[in-house]
Amino acid sequence: MSQGARLEILRPFQVTCGGRRVAISTGAQRLLAFLALRREGTHRRSAAEQLWPDCTSCRAAANLRSALCQGRKLGSAPAIDLAGHSLVLASSLSVDFHDACDAAHRLVSGDGTFCDGDQLVADLSQVLLPGWDDEWLLLERERWDQLRLYALEALEALAQSFQTEGRHLSALQASLAAASIDPFRETPHRIAVEVHLAEGNVACAVKRYQDYQRLLRRELKVAPSPRLTRLVRDLTRT
To answer: Closest Cα to residue 64, out of 79, 78, 87, 47?
Structure first.
């Protein structure tokens, strides 16, 4: 596959080579996505059975051969490596999902810093293969959702740590990133309000609270917690 080849599965499925989108068959799309979610590779029979569960074993194997043939023709180098009866995505094909998972794991483990926050937030806000209803995707989506949750909690902890250390800008960036991932969670909004108050930005603190309050009323018909409300209660009295 040519340099710059990339597979995207956190947004509508897409393969690009040299910045240009590559059109491939539905079967090849499903095979590439299936292998992208199994970085260690998988047995051909297992791939055929899971990708075409309603077909006979012979038909599923034939479908796999067709998808494999089409999926390996994306460029000068194959997108799928063959090792006996095993299939694995070629290392020359970068995958947005892999990048997002690696970044999220670094954040959760504390090995990385919040240096590429915009990209991480954008990735963590995405649904895995939107619009696909394949049964083999259910467990993978659950795993992705769990990782997103852990990453969100790590962002909140990072924001709180920055706030405690007096690193207000970093705390605000991390809290806003967490709020972007899950706008209904109160913790990042509370931290953002606390940061604004610590910096003396009363108007910003009140606005952040009121925006969150309106969101909860409009979407969930509930109010912010007493803890958050107490932070701005005296500021909003007229």
So the answer is: 47
> What is the tens place of the pLDDT at every residue in 102-125?
989 988 988 756 555 678 888 888
Domains in the chain with CATH codes = 6-92 (1.10.10.10), 96-236 (1.25.40.10)
Least Cα distance to 95 among 7, 200, 199, 205 occurs for: 7
Exposure pattern of 170-205 as b/e (b: 16+ CB <10 Å)?
A: bbbbbbbbbbbbbeebebbbbbbbbbbbeeebeebb
Residue 17: helix, strand or coil by DSSP? strand
Given a contact cutoff of 8 angstroms between Cβ atoms, the answer to whether 107 and 20 are in contact is no
Give the global pTM: 0.81
User: Is there a contact between 225 and 186 (Cβ–Cβ < 8 Å)?
Assistant: yes
- CA-nearest of 155, 177, 143, 175 to 110 is 155
Neighbour order of strands in the sheet with 6-8: 20-21, 14-17, 6-8, 94-95
Q: Which two tokens stand for residue 144?
A: 């992705």
Site of tokens 């995958």: 95
